[in-house]
Amino acid sequence: MCLAVPMKIKKINGFQCVCEARGIEREVSLFMLQGKALEPGDYVLVHVGYAIQKVTEREASVSWQLFDQILAAEA
After folding, report:
1. What is the structure's pLDDT at 74?
2. Using CA atoms, how far apart are residues 39 and 68, in angstroms rounded to an integer?
3. Beta-carbon neighbour count of residue 57 at 10 Å?
4. Do 49 and 4 contact (CB within 8 A), yes or no?
5. What is the CATH number of the domain that holds 50?
6. Given this model, what pLDDT does residue 40 score?
7. Of 26, 27, 68, 71, whose CB is crowded by the most CB atoms within 10 A?
């Protein structure tokens, strides 16, 4: 099974960007989303360092709520 994490784009430089989620920043490749209009403030799903899909802020929030529920159930 694969897991993609929703992250917010902070800065874009060509096909590279800096994304943030819950205070953690990562460099992410935008190579797989070349045809999409992306700008800082947009949300993307990130899998092994690659943005694989643009999502809405609401979709990103719902994903994080689900991750929190899963972690709470395992505690």
Report:
1. 78
2. 27
3. 12
4. no
5. 2.30.30.140
6. 98
7. 26
Distance, CA of 72 to CA of 61 (rounded, Å) = 17
Torsion of CA 35, 38, 44, 50, to 10 degrees: 60
| Helix segments in 1-75, DSSP class H | 57-74
Q: What is the domain extent for residue 44? A: 5-74
Q: Residue 27 has which token pair?
A: 């460099």
CA 6 to chain centre: 3
Helix (H, G, I), strand (E, B) or coil at 48: coil
- Our count of domains for the chain comes to 1
Digitized pLDDT (tens) for each residue of the chain, 75 residues in all: 688 999 999 999 999 999 999 999 999 999 999 999 999 999 999 999 999 999 999 999 999 999 999 989 977
